[in-house]
Design a protein that fits this description.
- This protein has helices at residues 7-29, 31-38, 43-49, 52-73, 77-104, 110-117, 127-149, 151-159, 161-171, 176-186, 196-214, 219-258, 262-283, 287-290, 293-297, 299-314, 322-347, 353-360, 362-368.
- The chain is an all-alpha fold and 369 residues long.
- The protein has one domain.
């Protein structure tokens, strides 16, 4: 992966992390409530920050194709399986760490934190880590299916989950103890989305994008990307025509995501591809190496540390003015970026070798040297 890593993917991931931290600051400080009360015309800004999650999902698929599919096809399935499980464990530890910080900071109760540990409730500020846990484990099935049947059949198989989930949800209500995990994994329950199963179609689209980038001469891969993107854009246009532009923006802010609506993935996926394209254009100038790409190259650490720090103090902050809130959020993200860049330069030094071995494993650390 280090040899094939593309700068603009790191930049896009870093931009998504910045949007997420901005949104979480605004959410925790109550500044979004001030926006809703003062000027609904700015709802678009909130909707833009909510595109962070679809961007994470799309990039997860792209990274999976680049990092794992080729090596699985070459006969390294056992090695890749171990890496996927180890990465899932790391994401679980990261989600629990953020969950503990929200409890210590007073954002949630310790009882709610216990539910986080048991995957019975979404982790405030870190539900994407829970998505990664489930999706990394699902990759043990998704990657072989992608290799055996190709991307297009797998894409339509994933889309079929929407009607299946709707039927099951109408016939079955999970018991309270299972409601949280059923919601997060299958989208069946009272919890908000996106569920791991609903998101797999966007993961597969990421795989298709990555495959097309790596083999630009293959028209079949281009066709898959074009078809999937066309379906997504049509879904986004339909949602806008049905609900109106402001209705769609409000839906992206909460309702579409909460309901695992197809519109959420269509609009979110379309904007995620746009972000990816803009980051590609920015990479031509070298901006990705100097800007938010430092988040993207160290995404787990950046997202976890940024939200842990936020969770420890944001429960004691209330900002009733939207302009002040957005200004403070930008200052927080910029300050964290500077501090994180300094931390990474120290993390890569020999004094933190033991910590890198915990995070990456001793073999990978040796190869890095």
């Amino acid at each position: 992966m280090s040899r094939t890593r593309l700068t603009y993917i790191d930049t896009a991931r870093g931009f998504a992390i910045s949007l997420a931290l901005l949104s979480h600051f605004m959410l925790g400080s109550g500044s979004w409530d001030a926006l809703a009360a003062s000027d609904s015309g700015l709802e678009g800004l909130r909707a833009v920050t909510r595109v962070a999650t679809p961007t994470f999902i799309l990039l997860f698929g792209m990274s999976s194709e680049m990092a794992y599919v080729r090596r699985w096809r070459e006969g390294h399935s056992s090695i890749i399986s171990k890496k996927l499980v180890r990465r899932a464990v790391q994401c679980y530890i990261a989600s629990v760490s953020v969950g503990l910080a929200t409890a210590i900071g007073g954002v949630v109760s310790y009882g709610y934190f216990v539910k986080n540990v048991l995957l019975m409730a979404p982790v405030v500020y870190a539900d994407i880590f829970v998505f990664y846990v489930f999706s990394l484990l699902l990759s043990l099935l998704m990657i072989p299916l992608r290799i055996k049947f190709g991307i297009l059949p797998l894409f339509f198989l994933c889309i079929s989950w929407w009607p299946i989930a709707s039927i099951v949800k109408g016939l079955f209500s999970p018991p309270p103890l299972l409601d949280g995990i059923m919601s997060q994994l299958f989208g069946i329950g009272t919890g908000i989305g996106p569920s791991a199963f609903h998101a797999q179609a966007l993961v597969v689209l990421g795989m298709a994008l990555s495959a097309a980038i790596q083999d630009r001469s293959n028209w079949r891969k281009k066709f898959v990307v074009g078809l999937a993107s066309a379906l997504m854009v049509c879904g986004a246009v339909y949602a806008i025509l049905r609900d109106g532009i402001f209705g769609a923006l409000e839906g992206m802010s909460y309702a579409y995501r909460a309901e695992n609506s197809f519109a959420y993935f269509c609009i979110g996926g379309t904007l995620a591809i746009l972000i990816l394209f803009l980051c590609w254009a920015a990479s031509l100038t070298g901006f990705g190496n100097r800007g938010v790409g430092v988040f993207g190259r160290n995404s787990m650490q950046a997202f976890a540390l940024g939200n842990i720090i936020l969770a420890l103090f944001i429960g004691h902050v209330h900002i009733s003015n939207f302009i002040v809130g957005i200004g403070c959020a930008i200052i927080y993200v910029a300050s964290f970026w500077v501090a994180f860049k300094v931390w990474i330069s120290q993390y890569k030094s020999s004094r933190f070798r033991w910590l890198r071995e915990i995070a990456n494993g001793p073999e990978r650390t040796e190869r890095a040297h």
